[in-house]
Amino acid sequence: MTAWIAAWLSACTTETAAPVPPPDAALVGTWRDRDQQTRLVFTAEGTFQYTQGKWTNTGMVVGWTDQGFLASAYPEPELHTITVRPHPEGDGATWMTVDDRPLYRQSTDAVIGTPQAPPRPAAAPAGTP
């Protein structure tokens, strides 16, 4: 408990992202739940995007604890609990549990934001095959 309080106090005063600690490097990437309602993205530099339904929080991880990570939020950081660390399962996917939600690694790429659709090709001029 003391470690969590110390992390919380330092998170309240920090304005920089806390990079993913080397032992937790497996967190980096894009994670989803089975229903595609939850999406969590971690970058190695310590930025994140956490989407649940229509709610999205994009910001910095301002601290790491034994229980999870402290996300930048106003007026104070939010603790998100990682109860099951990333691990491979029999289906070949890597899974973890955050805030009681099982998530699988969709990609090792950590892309924050909504992916954009590729541009549509220009229509061919009339009369060309």
Task: Give the helices and strands, then pairings.
Layout lengths: L1 H12 L15 E4 L5 E5 L4 E6 L2 E10 L3 E4 L6 E11 L5 E5 L2 E7 L22
Antiparallel strand pairs: 1-2, 1-8, 2-3, 3-4, 4-5, 5-6, 6-7, 7-8
Using brief descriptors, characterize the structure shown.
8 strands; mainly beta; globular; 129 residues
Structural features, described:
The chain has 129 residues and is mostly beta strands. The protein has a single domain (2-107), classed as Lipocalin (Beta Barrel). It is 9% helix and 40% strand. An 8-stranded antiparallel beta barrel has the order 1-2-3-4-5-6-7-8. β3 and β4 form a beta hairpin. Mean pLDDT is 82; it is low at 4-13.
Strand order of the biggest β-sheet: 1-2-3-4-5-6-7-8
Q: How would you sum up the major sheet?
A: 8 strands, antiparallel, barrel
Q: Helix share of residues?
A: under 10%
CATH class, please? Mainly Beta
Give the count of structural domains.
1
Overall radius of gyration:
18 Å
Total DSSP E strands: 8
Order of helices and strands: HEEEEEEEE
Condensed summary:
This protein has about 130 residues and is mainly beta.
